[in-house]
Amino acid sequence: MQHLEEQEYTKQFDFELWKNLFRYTKPYKKYLIRLIFIMVGVAGIDAIFPLMGKFAVDNFIVAGDMSKMGIYIAVFSILVVVQAFNVWMLITTAGKIEVGVCYDIRKNAFRRIQELSLSYFDRTPVGWMMARMTSDTQRLGQIIAWGSVDSIWGIAMMVIMMSIMLILNWKLALTALVVMPALIVTGIYFQKRILKAFRDIRKTNSKITASFNEGITGARTSKTLVREGRNIIEFNEITDKMYHKSVKAAIFSSLYMPIVLLLGSIGTGLVLWKGGNNVINGVMGYGTLVAFINYVLRFFEPVRELARIFADLQYAQASGERILSLIDKEPDIKDKKEIIQKFGDFFNPVKKDWPGVEGDILFENVSFRYKKGEEVLKNFNLHVKKGQNIALVGATGSGKSTIVNLVCRFYEPVEGRILIDGTDYRERSQLWLHSNLGYVLQTPHLFSGTIMENIKYGRLDAGDEDVIKASKLVNAHDFIVKLDKAYEAEVGEGGARLSMGQKQLVSFARAIIADPAIFVLDEATSSIDSETEQVIQSAVEKVLEGRTSFIIAHRLSTIRNADRILVIDKGTVIEEGTHQELLKLRGRYYNLYNNQFLDEQEIKTINMDTELSL
Amino acid sequence: MNSKFKLSMQLMKGNWLLYAGAVVSVMAAGIFAMVCPLVIRATIDSVIGNKELDVPGWLGSIIESWGGTGVLAKNLWICSLALLALTLLQGIFSFARGKWAAQASEEISRRLRDKLYEKFQKLPYDYHVKAKTGDLIQRSTSDVETIRRFLSFQLVEVGNTVFMVIVVFIIMMSLNIKMALLSVVVLPVLFTFSIVFFKKIKDQFKLCEESEGKLSTVLQENLTGIRVVKAFGREAFEYEKFDKKNDEYTENVRGIINYFALYWSSSDLMSLSQTGIVTVAGIYATISGQITLGTFFVFLAYVGMLLWPVRQLGRILTDMGKMVVAMDRINEILEKEQENMNEKGKRPIIKGNIEFHKVCFGYEGDENVIKDVSFKVKSGQTVAILGPTGSGKSTLMHLLQRLYDYRKGSIIVDGVELKEIEKNWLRKHIGIVLQEPFLFSRTIKENICLAKLDVREEEMFEAARTAAVHDVVNEFDKGYETIVGERGVTLSGGQKQRVAMARSLIRSCPIVIFDDSLSAVDTETDALIRKAIRESNKKVTTFIISHRITTLSQADAVVVLKDGMIEQYGSHSELISQEGLYKKLWNLAKGSEKAV
């Protein structure tokens, strides 16, 4: 978890980045313009209220003339109503911008995620992408919408108040504004420190969460190692750190307000002193004095707001950088322009022009390496005829998955080419290949929804009968109809309500329903209960029949039934042939067989308590 | 309720003074804040103006002794300075409040976290077998946070608001009763409105959270299942699915924002109306001479001071209900009975002679899963345990570490009844490598040296070599400093097992249990590890749960378990001459050789 921590961004304001980000406000331009008017209006009325006080003091109280009282009340009421309306307008308008920007960013980012190649996902943790799409997007939407609101208000408020004060009495205004620079500097300084302190706390807090996680999931291990005591001591160190950091942050934030208030009251004091003298000397009215005191008291609020936005911007800038790094990421595998023109892209395929797939696959001098890694495949040649079953056998990291990844075009050869039915697959669209591919993962992945929906994932226009037919073919029908709602049963998040074996069967049905010409199977290693095992084995046999298939095989029966077995080591085929042929070689396959497959049979023997042979 | 009270007392212990200090400070700060407008009032009315000075007697006499208001008028800065001094005092107290409240509440949340963590460490093994990790973490983090927020902010804030309202109202009443009543006339409405609003909006928030949850489920499933999405060419389908949820969520957020627009505009309308009422009434009162200009100013300032906290009060009060729930949820964990580790037990010298005699065991409330198991192991011997899933192999081994205590029968370790041996002592002398070992996200080095202090590097290498993991680790870029689980470095199941073995071996226990842990590595490595252990020349009693005939056949004795009972017991040569599971396995292995 810890390595997913956000990096520190101390960079200065990045104008280019913000320009780039503000492209997301384009559809909301009219709201932004409206917002400017509203906010200036809000600030204007906010700034007028002290003037209303001055008017009252000068005209009513000092002069004692009540003739204008009716108008005064009317104006005051209008101001109140208009201001309330303004507030309503500003929140709904800024809300539209916030919500719209977030929506657009999420939409764009998700679209880009769909376009990115698998290489990206192999490098990028899911949590990282989740955070970009959730908290970062939210933060950005907020700063764009509400940051605009507050900064327009803050600036307008300051300008208007300053103007009014200067007009009323420029000397006194300048005296009152003496504290301004100090106010701004303090504001920015504290906001930054506070933000940093809180970021620190968040980091420590995620350490605490991680420790709780380990403390709970690792509790059994800790017990057997008698390590509880030291775990507790180590945990106490973290909470200790948390305590000190939190108190420090609290000290900072509780220092901030008093200092701002104090600076503000220096302004008030100066006004009271100098303005009071003016009143005593008769050069200024009571009303102006009261108005000035009111203005000075209100002055620190816009300053504080602006300082906060300034600090927030830097934080949001980091979010923006990360989001853009995702949205602007170019996929490693892209169909050529003319191919897209001919066959369409992911979102607008031109299916009528797609050629059919027979399933003859040829690796021609294929070399491959992952980014900055060493070569995994070198001058690899392989011809798989239509309908052949190929079992790939070898240790972890031998290159089995790479071959499968290349067949699926999740990665492309660095050198050489892969031909499907005699044509380089780069001359077709990715979607064309994937639409003709059946794929079953080692750990089956289902989506929330019903079993019906999950199986239809393999062919969107399939009817219910098709689903039942496919399920029957892979022996899934029997368990499905026994479920509470049969095909309409919810599988839960990630298929959590089904057992491992059930999930596998559903994923077989899903892969088979489109009747793909090419089939890829990454067999599960973990042993499931022997009864399901039997069911799955017969499902595998049926699924592979008549399809060109690549199997990363672990089960003896699957391997034995394959048309060809390739033993892969360090990216090359070291042995090749049928089961019997390979056993006779007494080489690597023979060894593997003895170890791995004997293991499998032993477990079966123990659990089923029947005599087995090989 | 009682236990919750007890917990609260425990948490507050030692923090009362800080808390009291915070409360006193918040009130003091409030009072000074309230006095500031009074100073301005006096200045406007009596120093600049010529009204009779309306201040407490002692202050009046001080001012008189200086030469009266006339002197002040010539030296207006004194009034300003008074204002400044008052603000400074207000600042100091509000700082003290912030600091003390933070110290108290942070101390309390630290205690709470520590207590919870300690509890997790001390709960019995069985609790953790059944534990729902996600829920426990939720309680340890967000529930603690709810309590922290309540203590550090909400409680003080509510107290502060109530205090302010009362004191301000009293001062206002003493200045002018009619004006005072007019100044608070809208406040009850505002308060009720905010309570009703925040209660009402809860449903909308819930709706919003739900749709957010759905959105992130779609996202999460898409990301974790990206291979499936790509292999089936479902990019466009997923995009539409996401878009729909994105739409729903956006609609709900918009709903909330619209609610808030309504709330803030209405409450602004009320607040400004309150100001308007005071302004107009103040004008009349001032003209008719009921109040002075300065008093008018004070009323306006006070109304401004009250409006905001009262608006906030609704939000805080509706939020405070969560605290009780959080407290309950935490208490539920803290009340669970923990494993008794402090009992004074025997500490015999453990050499590894073990005798099971008619041992019976069943999990709480369940039937026996171990039934009348008896066998003997001499120090230094290796015993292999064989049996189908659920036959009780692991359970039997867990009994040895006293992770569970047996019901009947006895287990004698080096002449002492197991139950009489101190748990810590026992566990220090028995190493067990669990079926699913847990590695901590620290360096490999730290993981291996987890259970032993001051390990020499050579010792660590030795343990790693024995567990056949030394070469693997050295191949990593950072070697032993590699952090487990860090991006790019994921250990395979077998590698994890081997690190766990090294972690156990480094402790040099006289008894070692491999709970099916060798099965996760391939047969050759399995053999290498066992050979290395044998050759390390230590007299170690070893238990190995395994299904591999090669492993079983090399043990001094094999126990075949079925349904919690010993079905067969004996050495390799004894067992191959009996009909049974062992022989079947043996035939299988022989057959595999013949098949070639």
Describe the structure in your own words:
- The complex is a heterodimer of chains A (614) and B (596).
- Chain A is elongated.
- Chain A is 63% helix and 9% strand.
- In chain A, the strands form two sheets. In chain A, strands 6-7-8-3-9-10 form a six-stranded mixed β-sheet, with helices on both faces. Chain A has a four-stranded antiparallel β-sheet with strand order 2-1-4-5, with helices on one face.
- Chain A has helices at residues 15-21, 29-62, 69-115, 118-123, 126-168, 170-176, 180-217, 219-224, 228-280, 286-327, 337-343, 400-407, 430-434, 451-456, 464-473, 477-482, 500-512, 530-544, 556-561, 579-585, 588-608; strands at residues 361-369, 375-384, 389-393, 415-420, 423-424, 437-440, 518-522, 548-552, 564-569, 572-577.
- Chain A has 614 residues and is an alpha/beta fold.
- Residues 1-8 of chain A have low confidence and may be disordered.
- Chain A starts with 14 loop residues before the first helix and ends in a 6-residue tail after the last helix.
- Chain A folds into two domains: 15-327, Up-down Bundle (ABC transporter transmembrane region fold); 335-436 and 548-614, P-loop containing nucleotide triphosphate hydrolases (Rossmann fold).
- Chain B has 596 residues and is α/β, with parallel strands linked by helices.
- Chain B has 22 helices and ten strands.
- Chain B has a six-stranded mixed β-sheet with strand order 6-7-8-3-9-10, sandwiched between helices. A four-stranded antiparallel β-sheet of chain B has the order 2-1-4-5, covered by helices on one side.
- In chain B, a hairpin with an 8-residue loop joins strand 1 (354-361) and strand 2.
- In chain B, helix 2 packs antiparallel against helix 12 (293-334) and helix 9 runs antiparallel to helix 11 (235-287).
- The longest helix of chain B is centred in the middle third of the chain and has 53 residues, at 235-287.
- In chain B, 43% of the residues are buried.
- The model of chain B has no long low-confidence stretch (mean pLDDT 86).
- The chains are: A alpha/beta (614), B alpha/beta (596).
- At the A-B interface, helix 2, helix 3, helix 5, helix 7 and helix 8 of A face helix 2, helix 5, helix 6, helix 7 and helix 9 of B.
